[in-house]
Amino acid sequence: MAISDAPSVIRYPKASVGADLPALERVGSVDVLRRSGTDVLLVTVGALGELGLEAAQRLEDQGIGVTVVDPRWIYPMSVDLVEMAASHRLVVTVEDGGRHGGFGSALAAACATPTSRSRCATSRCRNGSTTTASVERCWRCAASPRRTWRAA
User: Fold this and answer.
1) Are strands 90-94 and 40-44 parallel, antiparallel or unpaired?
2) CA distances from 43 to 3, 6, 38, 73, 151 (A)
């Protein structure tokens, strides 16, 4: 690959890529992986899609309606994703990045409009360093049904 017209970054995920997940539909640039309601929009980034689907099942078992999406790319921010966020009570991003300055922070900023009724929460490890925590540990921390219900 050659890019000569702008600075570029290639980021390799910490997790294994995993199997392809079939989308129920594509809304603009966003793949919808599961849809059972508009209580929570669960935005999974990259390799965390499968774990997002597992969390959605746990939430649905508690009567919480969930939409799980994969934005396909994270920058520039998808207008389609921001519009989807506006139709949900809570937006949760699950990514393997740091606590600040990641995709979740960018989505929260994009959703911060005076008319938005959505609340955004980013889910990451609380140990201060994602380099020492496994993806599974981050997921257990972020995807606890009890934690998500309190946020909703």
Assistant:
1) parallel
2) 29, 28, 13, 12, 15
Instruction: Find the domain containing 105 and state its range.
Output: 25-151
Q: Does any domain span residue 123?
A: yes
The answer to whether the CB of 21 falls within 8 A of the CB of 50 is yes
In a domain, 8, yes or no: no
Number of domains in the chain: 1
Q: What predicted TM-score, i.e. pTM, was given to this entire model? A: 0.71
How far apart CA 27 and CA 107 sit, in angstroms, is 17
pLDDT digits (tens, 9 = 90+) for 3-28: 778 777 666 666 566 678 889 999 99
Residue 3 counted as domain residue:
no
Q: Can you tell me which residue has the tokens 């937006």?
A: 91
In this structure, what CATH number is given to the domain that contains residue 107? 3.40.50.920
Euclidean distance between CA atoms 30 and 19, whole angstroms: 18
